[in-house]
Amino acid sequence: MSSKYKFNNPEGIYFVSFAVIGWIDVFSRQIYRDLFLESLVYCRKEKNLNIHAWVIMSNHVHLIISCKAGFILSDIMRDLKKYTAYKILKEIKESTTESRKEWMLFLFAKAGKENSNHTNYQFWRQDNHPIALDFHSNMFEQRLDYIHNNPVEAGIVEHAADYVYSSAKDYQEGKGLIEIDVLQ
């Protein structure tokens, strides 16, 4: 099995991307973005996840993360994805206003049936695509710029710091929605 896209260095800094199955635009609704953010905050406080940069797009997430010594980044990511899937699916199922409810649940159930790792629904694609970053290289800055400019490239905002669901504001203007761990 290839080690190209794994969390090989326990003390490393990683760029990760993960998407909703079928690239379903779940995060076009604020409630689902907020549920994801709550989980990120929890993982930062309780599971010792370091969040260096982040963005939530309509159907995927990009992060630059690491973890404190003695913790395992792949375990934190597994728990983050499992819990956010549970919370978001619960919210969709219980929603009385979600116009896409039946369609989304059908697709999540179909993906779950096709994947032996799931019993009912599959929310996230299996991969995280982690890429190790060297903080002192251009690659770190390139990934940081990529994350922050994703909403600009998608035509959502004109300036990266204007997109609320991103850490761009933390790097350009001050405090954003959640506390991040800025590398010096």
UniProtKB/TrEMBL annotation:
A GO molecular function held by the record: transposase activity
Record field: transmembrane: 12-31, 51-73
Keywords: Membrane, Transmembrane, Transmembrane helix
Keyword Transmembrane: yes
GO biological process: DNA transposition
Keyword Hydrolase (UniProt): no
Domain Transposase IS200-like: 9-122
Family matches, as Gene3D superfamilies: Transposase IS200-like
The protein's name: Transposase
